[in-house]
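Throughout this chapter, every protein is written as a compact record of paired, labelled lines. An example of such a record is reproduced below:
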Amino acid sequence: MDQTSAHALYDRFLRGLARSPEGVALRTGEFSLTYRELYDRALTWAGSLLDALPERPAAVGVLAGKSPDAYTAILACLFTGVPMVPLQPSFPVLRTLHMLEAAGVEALIVDAEAVPALEKLRAEGVVLPALLDGGAEGADGVVRPVSTARLTRPHPVAPDDVAYVLFTSGSTGRPKGVPVTHANGAHYFDLLDARYDFGPHDVFSQNFDLNFDCAMFDLFCAWGAGATLVAVPPGAYRDLPGFVTDQGITVWFSTPSVIGLVRRTGGLTKGSLPSLRWSFFAGEAVTCQDVTDWQYSASGSAVENLYGPTELTITITRHRWSPETSPGISVAGVVPIGPVHAGHAWMLINEDGEQEDREGELCVAGPQLTAGYLDPADDAGRFLERHGVRYYRTGDRIRVGEDGQLLYLGRLDQQVQVRGVRVELAEIEEALRRCPGVEDAVAVPVPSDQGITLAAFHTGEGVPPVALARELSLTLPRAVLPQHFFHIAEFPLNSNRKIDRRALLGQALERLGRPH
């Protein structure tokens, strides 16, 4: 095993390599790689990319789905010692282009599935070198891995060096880049190491897209323990209990919406998930009924609700579900988010920015907090300083419950979770206003059996919904496209002469035939 600094995010993998060198590090479908095989492959890719560049890049983008090459690419990128930027191939090309420019990406690692996305970027004038295993010999800008270029060890990194950059939805109509340092990750994973008993015998699910911060939990909890990481394909949800059992999964992590999906397919029967030891949910509020139904199927599993914005490094609170006590302290049937991680300061503030004891907006400071967005202009309104301490304003309304348990009451602003993806309603609205024929637009979150969906109201011309959807798909990810479009002559106003979003939600529910 190579000796390196314990703060490096990739040191998690090196620990797993030392514990389980011939153990399976990764399984995707019928394909698997041992820790030793994945280590050698990633070092070869990292060295090949660096050898092909005139100088050390400022950042490397990983344009890949959940393929074997995608996981090799993430590790290889970290081994170069430069910031890694996960990119989703299904995102609109203009959105990806903005991310590349904002993060200063100077090279790409691409899997075979993302080649069409790479070609679209090339058509937009992106000429970055791209490492592609099995790429055509001599193809323009394509770098092929060669064993002679293999690094002898990962490049060293400092604690304050950026490990990766993730992008969140932005109220200005463009994504905001969040740099996460190796020190941010070290504090987070040290806490998890002390809290959980993960080991080489464990098999972790990997549900989240790789540009979603919770995917980092999957990868580096599994690899830090010498455990096996299993990519969950879309088809697995048709019989999730069968997939979990066949794969021997012991640690599950997903958005709560998966619970409803498995319930609708009839999978939440008594004891149908017997292999699970741990079950984690994050990305959106989880209800007591959802957790009760899940644990009925996974009776041998501890269940935890995790909470945290990207700016606070994956998750910053956790609540361990107890059938005896959790329902009694929950609010509106929503599971508590629990206490803030050790080593952090937190407070609640009111609309005037004054500190409150019982209820208000949650603000957090500490070692998991990012130093700020890639574009300092995005920092405005999201951070505040008190007594020389810098806090992140989460935008979430929180109440302090029994024993210091924090209770989630909802969003203060227009930011919502749609299928686990955090999105600013203002970004949807800004994109709609740019559509031909649209004068003004308002998006509202609509509850449904599948979780939150989006309904968009617009004034101006009566543009057909299919035309609006087509136009929005050029700049917005598919997961956050409104599912319903309504033309309206003018927006209803409240007593303060502001657009009455509550009234629009009522109209949406009425038009969709749903109860208010």
User: Anything to note?
Assistant: The first strand starts at residue 24 and ends at 28. The chain has a mean pLDDT of 92. The CA atoms of residues 494 and 500 lie 5 Å apart.
